[in-house]
Design goal:
The complex is a heterodimer of chains A (353) and B (378). By secondary structure, chain A is an alpha/beta fold. Chain A has two domains: 237 residues, P-loop containing nucleotide triphosphate hydrolases (Rossmann fold); 89 residues, no CATH class. In chain A, strand 1 and strand 2 form a beta hairpin. The longest helix of chain A has 18 residues. Chain A is globular. Chain B is an alpha/beta fold and 378 residues long. Chain B has a seven-stranded mixed β-sheet with strand order 6-7-8-3-9-10-12, with helices on both faces. In chain B, helix 5 runs parallel beside helix 7 and helix 6 packs across helix 7. The radius of gyration of chain B is 22 Å and the shape is globular. The chains are: A alpha/beta (353), B alpha/beta (378). Chains A and B meet through helix 8, helix 9, helix 10, helix 11 and helix 12 of A and helix 8, helix 9, helix 11 and helix 13 of B.
């Protein structure tokens, strides 16, 4: 379960068993147009062996958060505040040399587009062997053998020969497999997968998702899985965090968030998504408007300009006062628990047939 | 074409026209054994044609008046090429495309001109398909200018009407595309396609570049347009759920061939081709009730789609199929109504599956890595 406290000071106690814990994270970028506040006061925890699914639209801050965990932002243009603890180690203030020891070793990342994330200049085998050599001090030969073993494990046929190939000689699905092999080569405790299957075809996506699930069982890594596809999240994650305009708006276990969602944005996502089993008589109900610009985000609740239920709250609370996300299960919304329950059962659920 | 231009009242409330057209069921577009091969050049110093990418290899399909026809398949299966052949952005290698009984497969520019205005296209990427140096008004009135159409009340009035139909502020006709978001740009693309009162719109992945919450807006808009104006759609997409939502009939493509075609229910509830089964079972679904998932079959294919330069002999799916035998390698299965199929439901398979998507006694896992990992676990 995700347990969360708002006070950064509490993190030691609350995050006692959390392997990764992020506290009150703020990330902003300096751009020509002004300061983009990409992440605002985000907190979450992740235990070993569990998968946290982060779902949100483009610009919701989901990728920015995870690049921050690995320290991959250019410090020249980025301001980061808050606390990120990975197995007790503070990462925001960590030196580059410490992060280097960590990246690819304790924490690894799988990127969306394997063709741009792999180097076209080196063979696939060498790219997989390199982090293993660097982090374990293995010899070139041992590392190569390990790379071949990993390629076999992720299902590349004839791994001995294919390790000598360059990325362009691989198909899209195989490149993503090679990237998974590279991420898992040092047996990381934390795996961050940023839209790993978005660029793939649906039958290949199903193979890769199942492969990740099975490998997680074997390696016991914690996974942060970022996607915009609720179907993929439902398939992969134990816990879900829904992000909107740089902050978390709802969190809970997969069952809680998908079967009894509590935030109007989550309702909107579920209602606007066509499913194979949905009733064709009911039209989709899109969320009105467009996601806000993070240069000049709306005041109060960031979802209020697109929210249908603002009137139910009454007064100007939605415009003035940002709602807090309660610790653990819950949604950041001013509606009362009873209102949420009634709206979901009377208005949202009937449309989810 | 002048008399074809409708006034605003007709454009917004032409339900009668749409319903009449839909009821007729007459074929609007007939595609017969359409083939497109792209030559592959190689060799030095004289470059010769050494092979061909068989992007589309003999497909037949019919789109009726006012109907929405979905074309699904994975990347490289030839669905976009098919769309471009039908709009004649590409020249077919062989085969026949007839629009309202007229053969347009090799029609010249001049012969095509009157038909071009009846077949319009909506593109995938709303960023690269609009000219950044033209105002929205110019973009939408462009087709009218080219075809020399002067609607009553002037082109500007018509542009405003179109903007209103697609749900944009008509006052924005003087703005440039960069001032709009992705979803709004796609609406501009729809308005441009509607400018000439087309009979058929080829929509090539019209929503796949958009965010989930915006996708639904555009899908609803297209559905509205289809219903109100009675326009036939060839809806090309890889997202099976979106196609199911939008199309009355659906064709599934694999490596340049249509392997199964039928009405929506036949394809989604009673598929017969193993590939259709695999495709449907691979769609990740949000399980809202709890027990639904247990009823869906699980099929995990091995590897990727083979190269269309040297596709497998016989049935093209055989290299990834769990039922393939010698017969599949030597004999190409014809696209026919096999026993057990409803009317209009055609399947190209020697050994079709049961018409259900329910869970099987045993999952089909062909991926060697998955099978190995699951073996040790189980």
């Amino acid at each position: 379960m995700t347990t969360v406290t708002k006070e950064p000071g509490d993190s030691g106690a609350a995050g006692g068993d959390a392997f990764l814990s992020v506290r009150d994270l703020h990330v902003s970028f300096k751009t020509e147009d002004g300061i983009v506040r990409a992440v605002n006061g985000l907190s979450f925890d992740l235990q070993r062996g569990r998968t946290l699914g982060i779902v949100g639209e483009s610009g919701s801050g989901k990728s920015v958060t995870n690049l921050t965990i690995l320290g991959l932002h250019n410090p020249m243009f980025t301001t980061i505040d808050g606390e990120i603890l990975l197995d007790g180690q503070e990462l925001i203030t960590a030196r580059e040399s410490e992060l280097e020891k960590l990246r690819g070793n304790k924490a690894a990342m799988i990127f969306q587009d394997p063709l741009t994330a792999l180097s076209p200049y080196y063979t696939v085998g060498r790219q997989i062997a390199e982090p293993f050599m660097k982090h374990t001090g293995a010899s070139k030969k041992a590392a190569w053998e390990r790379a071949v073993e990993m390629l076999g494990k992720v299902g590349i046929p004839h791994p001995k020969e294919r390790a000598k190939d360059y990325p362009h000689q691989f198909s899209g699905g195989m490149r993503q497999r090679a990237m998974i092999a590279m991420a898992l080569v040092c047996n990381p405790d934390l795996l961050i997968a940023d839209e790993p299957t978005t660029a793939l075809d649906v039958t290949v996506q199903a193979q890769i998702l199942d492969l990740l699930k099975d490998l997680q069982q074997e390696f016991g890594s914690a996974i942060v899985f970022i996607t915009h596809d609720l179907g993929v999240i439902a398939d992969m994650a134990d816990d879900i965090m829904v992000m909107y305009a740089g902050g978390a708006v709802e969190r809970g276990t997969v069952d809680e968030v998908l079967r009894a969602p509590q935030h109007p944005y989550t309702w909107g996502l579920l209602n606007s998504m066509p499913r194979l089993g949905s009733d064709l008589g009911t039209p989709l109900t899109p969320i009105p408007g467009t996601p806000p610009s993070l240069l000049n985000p709306p005041s109060g609740c960031r979802f209020h300009p697109r929210c249908t239920y603002q009137g139910e709250v009454g007064g100007a609370r939605c415009v003035d006062e940002p709602p807090l996300l309660p610790p653990g299960r819950g949604g950041a919304c001013h509606l009362t628990a009873e209102q949420k329950q009634t709206i979901f059962i009377e208005q949202i659920k009937p449309r989810l047939r | 074409m002048k008399e074809e231009v409708v006034t605003k009242d007709e454009a917004t409330v032409p339900a009668a026209r749409g319903a009449a057209a839909e009821a007729s069921g007459e074929p609007l577009l007939v595609v017969d054994k359409l083939v497109k091969h792209f030559p592959v050049k190689g060799g030095f110093p004289i470059r010769r044609t050494v092979g061909a990418v068989q992007a589309v290899d003999g497909i037949d399909l019919t789109v009726h008046v006012g109907e929405s026809f979905g074309l699904v398949g994975e990347s490289g299966c030839g669905k976009s090429t098919t769309g471009r052949l039908i709009t004649r952005l590409l020249e077919p290698t062989s085969g026949k495309i007839s629009y309202r009984g007229q053969d347009i497969s090799h029609a010249s520019r001049k012969q095509l001109a009157p038909i071009r205005s009846e077949i319009q296209m909506i593109f995938q990427d709303p960023y690269s398909s609009l000219n950044p140096r033209q105002t929205v008004g110019k973009i939408i009135s462009g087709p009218m200018e080219i075809n020399d159409i002067n609607p009553a009340g002037g082109r500007e009035k018509r542009v405003r009407e179109l903007l209103e139909i697609v749900g944009l502020n008509p006052e924005h006709f003087n703005r440039f595309p960069h001032e709009f978001s992705g979803g709004q740009r796609q609406r501009i693309g729809v308005a441009r396609a509607l400018a000439l009162e087309p009979k058929l719109i080829v929509a090539d992945e019209p929503v796949s570049a958009l965010d989930v919450s915006i996708q639904a807006q555009v899908v609803n808009l297209l559905q509205q347009v289809q219903k109100d104006l009675g326009i036939a759609f060839l809806f090309i997409a890889h997202d099976l759920a979106v196609v199911r939502h939008f199309s009355q009939r659906v064709a599934v493509m694999y490596l340049g061939k249509i392997i199964e075609v039928g009405d929506r229910d036949s394809i989604y509830a009673r598929p017969r081709h193993p590939y259709t089964h695999a495709l449907l079972s691979a769609v990740p679904e949000v399980n809202l009730d709890g027990d639904e998932e247990a009823q869906r079959e699980r099929i995990r294919l091995a590897g990727d789609v083979p190269s269309p330069i040297s596709p497998p002999s016989g049935c093209r799916f055989r290299t990834r199929c769990w039922k393939a035998t010698e017969k599949c390698a030597t004999e190409e299965p014809p696209l026919v109504r096999i026993s057990g199929n409803g009317p209009g439901h055609l399947t190209a398979c020697h050994f079709p599956e049961e018409p259900t998507t329910g869970a099987r006694d045993e999952d089909i896992v062909l991926d060697p890595a998955l099978a190995a990992l699951e073996e040790t676990e189980g």
